[in-house]
Write a structure and sequence with these properties.
Mean pLDDT: 95
Low-confidence stretches: none
Distance between the termini: 39 Å
Shape: globular
Number of helices: 12
Structural class: alpha/beta
Helix content: 25-40%
Largest sheet: 7 strands, mixed
Number of strands: 24
């Protein structure tokens, strides 16, 4: 197999033109070209508004070594594709089946690995199945009536179901797990283009169907998924897991449990602390969510406001504040919506979400500032949770249960917004005008303003007076880490912390990859015990 890099064509090119470019680069005829597939596609906007796609392709040709010798091109090389493989139990296991707590990406992909390995895991999800969950979330957005067990944070698919559905990750991947995650999504019905796009995304509307299809695969292969099933207690003997309690009423015996609970299962964190699991408070980030006209971001990225072939543009900005704190964009949602992502009564948190078409008039992104355990008002492994809760209580009180929103000019002047300007909110859930400068410690507010002014030098118009800020963005990552060893087990034997909530991932793809990794560790453990 030959890998060809740096194939550059205008974004409006056809598949035939790309094939001819491959032939020309390799100096081969159509008959000598046996097959080819796109490995990577990225955008080159250095000469905007003239835009190009740059490709890496894998090619099969006749007389491969002769072609390679003939072309003398540093962008053409031999390659061997690294394919992900699954371990498999040679015989049916006699031990109690593994229990997976949580059906977000980490839990679902761990269950997927285990059924592929020949096991029949039980997945316990405190929230509803994805279709009922959607109805519950939309009811909350329209009425403000929160279901603490099934909401934007809890339910089938996890918090990522109500997001932009980004599938890019910075995790190093020598084992091919990233590509395997993408392949599983494609098998579940996602577009094949996500296999090679530089920044693939799915969108909330697409994720709903994909999550359901992955669950059906798990069930068809012998796994079981139960909803409205909250793990409320653990039975531990001699520092080893022996059973889990569900809904304070049902005891399920098991010596293998995957903790894929997500970053917002605060009651579960408290229970785990009481059970003696080794946990640590960790750094994360908090801030506000910003809304800009999508046309502003398109103009910056593409040199044109309406690039029909490319869709809504994204951005990523970072700044190091004078006080040493990092301030940066997070969970950027092109053509998206700010959503009420609360999961506890009397507390309000926001997040961003996009549909697959990314066709709302606004781009939104969290603008967040790093915080460390030294910033928390108290000590202990759950100090970060309490820090989040206080911010969310203040946001709920300020908006009287609705999302508080403020123009950037008013934020800088520390005054309540009385009317919106050129930018109007694109939100899911009720909202109200307010002075949200009162929500964060002033040191964080000052860092945010410093960062936003810095971002304006990168993206002209970023700090426009009518840009909107809303809060509070407090669920950027887990405030705790559940410590695990080289065998991926916690300080209690048989418990496998996994994914974002356990502090080992961030985002859909990295959480899913961690699920595969933990699934492999469990399989190895069972194989070694046979």
């Amino acid at each position: 197999m030959l890998r060809v890099q740096q194939l550059k064509l205008p974004v409006s090119h056809t598949r035939e033109k790309l094939e001819k470019k491959i032939q020309k680069t390799l100096k081969v005829s159509k008959e000598e070209l046996l097959s080819w597939s796109i490995r990577k596609q990225s955008l080159d906007a250095r000469k905007k508004p003239e835009l190009f796609f740059v490709y890496t392709v894998d090619v099969s040709v006749k007389k491969e070594k002769q072609v390679l010798k003939r072309v003398h091109n540093k962008n053409v090389m031999l390659t061997i594709e690294k394919k992900f493989s699954y371990l498999h139990l040679e015989r049916e296991m006699e031990a109690p089946r593994p229990v997976i707590v949580g059906s977000g990406p980490a839990g679902l992909f761990c269950a997927y690995y285990l059924v592929k390995a020949g096991m029949k895991p039980l997945v316990l999800e405190r929230g509803e199945d994805v279709e009922d969950r959607l109805k519950t979330v939309e009811h909350f957005w329209s009425t403000g009536e929160l279901n603490p067990e099934s909401n934007v944070q809890f339910g089938e698919g996890g918090a990522g179901t109500f997001s932009d559905g980004k599938l890019n990750t910075l995790v190093k991947d020598p084992m091919g797990r990233n590509q395997e995650v993408l392949k599983i999504f494609v098998e579940a019905g996602a577009p094949k283009e996500i296999l090679y796009q530089q920044k693939p995304h799915l969108g909330t509307d697409a994720l709903i169907g994909l999550v359901k299809n992955i669950r059906r695969f798990i069930e068809k292969a012998g796994g079981e998924v139960r909803f409205s099933s909250k793990v409320t207690d653990l039975e531990i003997r001699d520092n080893t897991l022996t059973a889990v309690m569900v809904n304070d009423s049902e005891k399920i015996e098991t010596n293998t449990m995957v903790l894929a609970v997500g970053h917002s299962a605060r009651d579960t964190f408290s229970m785990l602390k009481d059970k003696g699991l080794c946990m640590e408070a960790k750094s994360f980030a908090v801030g506000l969510r910003a809304e800009h006209p999508q046309t502003l971001i398109n103009q910056y990225q593409y040199g044109q406001e309406d690039p029909e072939d490319l869709g809504a543009a994204a951005y990523k900005v970072t700044h190091r504040g004078k006080n040493g704190r990092g301030v940066y964009s997070f969970c950027m949602c092109p053509g998206g919506y700010v959503v009420n992502a609360s999961s506890e009564p009397g507390r309000l948190a926001v997040n961003g979400m996009s549909y697959q078409k990314r066709d709302s008039q606004n781009a939104n992104s969290a603008l967040i500032v790093s915080v460390t355990p030294e910033d928390f008002p108290e000590d202990g492994v759950l100090a970060g949770v309490e820090f989040q809760r206080r911010l969310e209580e203040a946001a709920f009180a300020l908006g009287k249960g609705k999302i508080p929103v403020q123009r950037y000019e008013d934020f800088c002047l520390n005054r309540e917004t009385k009317e919106f300007g050129a930018v109007k909110p694109c939100m899911k859930g009720g909202y109200t005008m307010a002075n949200i400068r009162t929500l964060l410690p002033e040191a964080l507010n000052e860092t945010l303003v410093e960062g936003i002014e810095s971002f304006n030098r990168m993206i002209p118009g970023f700090s426009q007076p009518d840009m909107l800020l809303s809060g509070i963005e407090s669920r950027t990552s887990s405030p705790v880490r559940i410590v695990r060893n080289e065998q991926f087990q916690s300080s209690v034997a048989g418990i496998y912390p996994c994914g974002e909530g356990a502090g080992y991932a961030g985002g859909i793809t990295s959480a899913a990859m961690d699920g595969l990794k933990v699934g492999e560790a469990i399989t190895k453990n069972f194989i070694n015990s046979l």
